[in-house]
Design goal:
This protein has about 120 residues and is α/β, with parallel strands linked by helices. It is about 35% helix and about 20% strand. It contains four helices and four strands. The protein has a four-stranded parallel β-sheet, covered by helices on one side. Strand 2, helix 2 and strand 3 form a beta-alpha-beta unit. It is globular and about 40 Å long. The two termini are about 20 Å apart.
């Protein structure tokens, strides 16, 4: 089942937390088909280097905004860029267990009346 991951980063994003997050996305039993990464304004060079280190491993779709507009508007525009009906929201400091996406997508498939999983 194809799905998108939606994540927003901004000037205060920690490169070490982002590294852990992206590493956990690489380790998923069911990998994301698309990762929409919204830069809500400029980010620090070490954050850009961190992202660059995962470019060959993760299917990034990049969205850039010249100034920070806030999480809500950043996620709104990122959601529009998602190609799939299922979207997993991930914060840049989240470390997802390897079975996260496989469990969540299976649950949604088995329960079509459900539209959100926490």
């Amino acid at each position: 089942m194809p799905f998108s991951v939606l994540m927003s980063i901004y000037h205060a994003t920690s490169s070490s937390e982002l590294h852990s997050c992206l590493k956990s996305l690489c380790a998923q039993q069911l990998p994301a088909t698309q990762i929409v990464l919204v830069r809500d304004g400029p980010v620090r060079p070490e954050v850009e280097r961190c992202i660059d280190n995962f470019t060959s491993e993760l299917p990034f779709e990049h969205i850039f905004f010249s100034e920070n507009r806030g999480l809500g508007p950043a996620l709104h525009d990122g959601l529009i860029a998602c190609d799939y009906d299922i979207v997993a929201r991930v914060d840049s400091d989240d470390c997802s267990l390897p079975e996260r996406f496989s469990l969540q997508t299976a649950f949604l498939s088995e329960n079509p009346q459900i539209s959100a999983v926490g």
